Amino acid sequence: MSHAADLPLWASLIASFLVLLGASLTLVGAIGLVRLKTFYDRIHAPSLGATWGAGGILLASILLFSVLQSRLVLHEVLIAVFVTVTTPVTLMLLGRAALYRDRSENAADLPPPIRSDGETKSGDAI
Amino acid sequence: MSRLLPYPLLAVSLLAMWLLLNGLSLGHLVLGSVIGIAASNVTAALQPPRSRIRRWHLIPRLVAIVLVDIWRSNVAVARLILFPAQHRRVSGFVIVPLELREPAALAILACILTCTPGTAWVEYDSTARKLLIHVFDLVDEAHWIDLIKNRYERLLLEILA
Where are the domains of chain B? Predict the structure, then answer.
């Protein structure tokens, strides 16, 4: 960051605000991951970092490099797109694995099976 | 047109990605177009389901709604994590009956729901056409079903019918 001194004040203020916002949201998500009690509650917390946590930092990066290079730098948009598109894959994998485990262990507080045809086992009745 | 460009949207997205990564210039425009057309022709061998976008003008509206909702639920979930004592939170599962069948539309709905911190897509059954989601702060089940059906599903049905 040798050119940081060339940055006008307004841009550095907005960029620092966005970076701090993104970093704080990511931190809160990480705190939630530690402090929440059940698996299903925990999967909500990291989404903070994956959405506006990453979003704030990426917006700051777009602003900073666009101002420094005097042209629109937008390739951060690709990071946002790929994070958004790949998050559901991991989350569904984890969610369904947990659900499978809980159903096979007959854990408490399980959702009713969503399949209404004959494929539900008799042991699933709540 | 359709022989050269079996998946125009994919070709255009690849071109956009190429230009974003390499900067806008005539040379990269040509190279990116060649790559986009070639790659979408190779993908045609996999025969992914084709979906047609009917109403382009509704896409910005959906994007705006989703960005605002994600922001609001970021704030709400952050507050619940930092100050758990303020509000007695109950989380739980909700079953949402869906009318969407289009794989692309379901994928977009999955992205929306998982990216919103308060909701997580858990399971979808295509024969029962029901979706199981987990909600972080479940006050009223009907409210969440109404939100998904009227705020996202209706727009998605209009865009990708």
Answer: 8-46, 56-159
Q: How many CB pairs under 8 A join A and B?
A: 111
| Location of structure tokens 């976008």 | B53
Record: contact A116-B128, CB cut-off 8 A: yes
Q: How many whole angstroms separate alpha carbon B3 and alpha carbon B40?
A: 11
Least CB–CB distance from B120: residue in A25, A28, A43: A43
Q: ipTM of this model?
A: 0.79
Task: Show pLDDT as tens, one digit a residue, over chain B (161 residues).
Answer: 466 777 888 888 899 999 888 888 899 999 999 999 898 888 888 877 777 788 888 889 999 999 999 999 999 888 888 888 777 788 888 888 888 888 888 888 998 998 888 888 888 888 888 888 889 888 888 888 888 888 888 888 888 86
Global confidence as pTM = 0.83
Q: What is the CA radius of gyration of chain B?
A: 20
